[in-house]
Here is the input.
Amino acid sequence: SAGYILSALFAPDAVINSWQITLVDLSYLKDGLSLRINATFIIGSALMLVVFAIQNGG
Here is the structure.
Protein backbone atom coordinates (compact mmCIF):
# COMPACT_ATOMS: atom_id res chain seq x y z
CA SER A 1 0.00 0.00 0.00
CA ALA A 2 2.96 2.35 0.47
CA GLY A 3 3.64 2.26 -3.26
CA TYR A 4 0.02 3.19 -3.96
CA ILE A 5 0.25 6.10 -1.53
CA LEU A 6 3.40 7.38 -3.22
CA SER A 7 1.85 7.12 -6.68
CA ALA A 8 -1.32 8.89 -5.49
CA LEU A 9 0.52 11.78 -3.84
CA PHE A 10 3.44 12.35 -6.23
CA ALA A 11 3.98 12.46 -9.97
CA PRO A 12 5.75 9.45 -11.52
CA ASP A 13 8.86 11.53 -12.25
CA ALA A 14 9.07 13.08 -8.75
CA VAL A 15 12.41 12.90 -6.97
CA ILE A 16 10.93 11.09 -3.96
CA ASN A 17 10.19 8.04 -6.14
CA SER A 18 13.88 7.56 -6.94
CA TRP A 19 15.32 8.68 -3.58
CA GLN A 20 17.20 6.01 -1.64
CA ILE A 21 19.91 5.51 0.97
CA THR A 22 22.27 2.59 0.43
CA LEU A 23 23.03 0.87 3.73
CA VAL A 24 25.17 -2.07 2.62
CA ASP A 25 26.69 -2.84 -0.77
CA LEU A 26 26.34 -6.57 -1.39
CA SER A 27 27.83 -6.64 -4.87
CA TYR A 28 30.36 -9.25 -3.72
CA LEU A 29 27.42 -11.69 -3.63
CA LYS A 30 25.78 -10.58 -6.89
CA ASP A 31 26.34 -7.57 -9.16
CA GLY A 32 24.00 -4.67 -8.37
CA LEU A 33 22.79 -6.15 -5.07
CA SER A 34 22.54 -3.75 -2.13
CA LEU A 35 20.47 -3.10 0.99
CA ARG A 36 18.60 0.20 0.60
CA ILE A 37 16.04 2.35 2.40
CA ASN A 38 13.68 4.33 0.18
CA ALA A 39 10.45 6.30 0.53
CA THR A 40 8.32 3.16 0.15
CA PHE A 41 10.10 1.58 3.13
CA ILE A 42 9.58 4.68 5.29
CA ILE A 43 5.87 5.00 4.45
CA GLY A 44 5.33 1.26 4.92
CA SER A 45 7.05 1.36 8.31
CA ALA A 46 4.93 4.32 9.38
CA LEU A 47 1.74 2.51 8.31
CA MET A 48 2.73 -0.59 10.29
CA LEU A 49 3.42 1.50 13.40
CA VAL A 50 0.06 3.28 13.07
CA VAL A 51 -1.80 -0.03 12.70
CA PHE A 52 0.13 -1.49 15.66
CA ALA A 53 -0.75 1.54 17.81
CA ILE A 54 -4.43 1.33 16.85
CA GLN A 55 -4.62 -2.41 17.57
CA ASN A 56 -2.89 -2.18 20.94
CA GLY A 57 -4.61 1.00 22.04
CA GLY A 58 -8.10 0.11 21.03
Remarks:
- The chain has one domain: 2-57.
